[in-house]
Design goal:
Length: 229
């Protein structure tokens, strides 16, 4: 599965026509249940380290995709499964979803980005509580703490995500990429440097055909037809 994800992310990266990515599970009641602990028991420490490092690199490649990404969570998203969702820009779940990082109960820590992405999303104190206790939270609680963007009726997460994806897909493709770059990279900078980054991202859009198309469509009271140029 990990190799399949790596290949899929690479294909999306090379596909200039891709504007938004949704990650869904084909298995009912499970987005991703995390590591196979029975398999893990058969691994020596070096094999575990290699697998976790591969997982971390794969999720980083997902996070670094230039287009918006959406995790569609129905059922469980535990351990590496939640870390996969945390690597996306947006998360949509069903009310009966179960999210958590239970690693400390196995005498390890989240090793594929969980200790870094979770506090950046929900804050340091809450992230510590969730990781220290391994507590599992439902969809509504996940929404209230900012872990997911939307929690909807069970079975309807895909429809909600598709609605958002279609909305995103109508926007300027280059603008989406620059907005993602400005937000993600700017958060790691001081305000002065972050505003300089925003200026640079804005300047990348000034001489595009899409910017002119957006202005023309507004004046002519019609929907714009963006080409990513």
């Amino acid at each position: 599965m990990l190799r399949g994800l790596q290949n899929a992310f690479e294909a999306v990266k090379e596909d200039s026509s891709a504007n938004v990515l949704m990650i869904c599970s084909a298995v009912p009641r499970a987005f991703c249940a995390g590591a196979d602990l029975k398999e893990r028991k058969t691994m020596c420490p070096s094999e575990v380290q290699f697998f976790v490092n591969s997982l971390r690199l794969t999720f980083s490649s997902l996070e670094e995709l230039r287009i918006p990404t959406i995790a569609v969570i129905e059922g469980v998203a535990l351990g590496g499964g939640l870390e996969l969702a945390l690597s996306c820009d947006l998360r949509i779940c069903g009310d009966d979803a179960v999210l958590g990082l239970p690693e400390t109960g196995l005498a390890i820590i989240p090793g594929a980005g969980g200790t870094q992405r979770l506090p950046r999303l929900v804050g340091k104190s809450l992230a510590k509580e969730l990781i220290f206790t391994g507590r599992r939270v439902g969809g509504k609680d996940a929404k209230s703490m900012g872990l997911v963007n939307h929690s909807v009726a069970s079975g309807e997460a895909h429809l909600k995500a598709l609605e958002i994806a279609r909305d995103i897909n109508q926007k300027g493709p280059l603008a989406l990429k620059m907005a993602k770059r400005a937000i993600n990279n700017g958060l790691e900078l001081d305000m002065v440097s972050a505003l300089e980054l925003e200026e640079d991202c804005y300047e990348h859009l000034l001489n595009t055909k899409d910017r002119l198309e957006g202005l023309a469509a507004f004046a002519e009271k019609r929907k714009p037809k963006y080409t990513g140029q």
